[in-house]
Amino acid sequence: MQEGMSSQELKERLTLIETMIAEGRRRTESWGWIFVLWGFAYFVAIGLATGGRELSVWGNRHEGAWPITMLVACVLTLIIGIRKGKGQPVTTVSRAVLAAWISAGVSMFFLCPALAAEGRLDQHTFVALVAAMLGMANGASGIILRWKSQFACAVIWWITSVAACFGSIAQLTVVFLAAIFLCQIVFGFYTMVLEARRRRHTGVVHA
Amino acid sequence: MPERDEAELPDLNPVIHGKLRLALLSLLTTVEVADFTWLRTRTGSTDGNLGAQLAKLEEAGYVSVEKKFVQRKPQTLYRMTDEGRKALEEYVQALKQLLGTSLATGL
Lengths: 207, 107
What we know:
The structure holds 2 protein chains of 2 kinds. By secondary structure, chain A is mainly α.
């Protein structure tokens, strides 16, 4: 087989292997929209639950605001996620990141309604729990992807989680809203910009 | 410096040596599983050529194929086998060895 092959041809084969491995590792998934979607979902839930009249995570208005908004966000995430993920390859990294997020999501979706049903879920506990879970998922994802920006979001959520144990409800709400804005809306749009840039630079390798 | 005997040089695996087949195996090392469309986009090849080369890799036992339906649409998934991974590693080693020889002999 190697007879008649010049060193140039051999080098071309090695370059082809390197190029295709780099191409395969190039991430083209888009996840930024999920952060933005959930960021707005939290804002909508707080807005509907309080009627925008008080500085709290929920009030006496619309008791179903939080569960309904979360369910709608969950359904939207599933529908859009399935459509966007179609044709994307499965990698160990993507499965590990997804596992962290699904585990955090499932934990919140079982724990929060159970605590609420027993009347043991106050606003401080709720924010502390949600922030800790989001910190865990962002932290795991940031470490797996070696992404400092996402790990910074995890730190913000962890700080929010601890801060939620202290202060008044108004202070708690301000801290929660600030964390949502930074770690969901700003980080989400930043991720979307990065993803758009990466897609523009993706070139087909003709083998 | 002693002359290298031709018999000492490793053979390049002819199944992997084809450019598209080599590209496909290299791509599949980076993922757990990939579908036909993703492989076509990444290699820029035609459906016919891609299908034929993947069939050869499957025949050699280097990739495994799984066919399923997602939202009532057929999807063909390809996964690199342990044999395929070993074959590619051996191919790269052989390539490096040959390249070292050809550089030394000035070919």
